[in-house]
Amino acid sequence: MEQTLLHEKTAVLVVDMLHDFVKGALSCTQAREIVAPIRSLLTEARQKKVPVFYCNDCHVPGTDPELKLWGEHAIAGTAGAQVVPELLPCPGDYIIPKHCYSGFFQTELQWLLTTLGIENLIITGLYTNICVRHTAADAFCWGYHIYIPRDCVSAFAPQEFEGDIAYLQTVYGAKIISVDEIK
Ligand code: ZN
Fold it and tell me: 114: CA distance to ligand 1 center in Å?
């Protein structure tokens, strides 16, 4: 089945692969380990004309509630809010700035996915218990089939990874796969 996942009804989401999460204020070692697998997935996806969506934290000081809880990170217009150089968006990719955890919250994501006729979402990025989880929650509620390559997502605390993955599987029906299975 995964042999044919990269087709016209599938999109790839890249969640928060930004400087502040991969190398800066809210980063961790495991976050850096998923850069290369995501890069190879994106190359494969673009070759097959599968749309790539970057769901990027783009926080506005003084309004976004997350900042009170987590401190300053991914502030709009700063280097910390830029996608890491290894995963820079290409022409034709979609950039979805977001103000809270989910890529769907108050963004154009759902409208774009509907317009493109997307039914399957491959969700990658950070972190499995926060933005990946909240994005998966909304994806599930909108009726998408969710695929999560386990080597393309990371937990902030490594010991929570397996629990996070199990939650995504149980609660949102996410199919947990490896990047090598996606063709
Ligand atoms: Zn944030």
Answer: 25
| Distance of CA 67 from the midpoint of ligand 1 (Å) | 7
Residue pair 48/183 in contact (Cβ under 8 Å)? The answer is no
Boundaries of domain holding 35: 10-182
Burial of 167 (0-12, 13-18, 19+ CB in 10 A): middle
* Ligand 1 center to 3 CA (angstroms): 34
Q: What is the pLDDT of residues 57-103, one digit of tens each?
A: 999 999 999 999 999 999 999 999 999 999 999 999 999 999 999 99
pLDDT tens-digit readout, 137-156: 999 999 999 999 999 999 99
Q: Flag whether 2 is in a domain.
A: no
Q: How far is the CA of 85 from the centre of ligand 1 (A)?
A: 19
**Residue 16 three-state SS:** coil
What CATH number is attached to the domain comprising 31? 3.40.50.850
DSSP 18: B
CB 110, CB 135: distance < 8 Å:
no
H/E stretch holding 6 reads none
Q: How many domains does the structure of the chain reveal?
A: 1
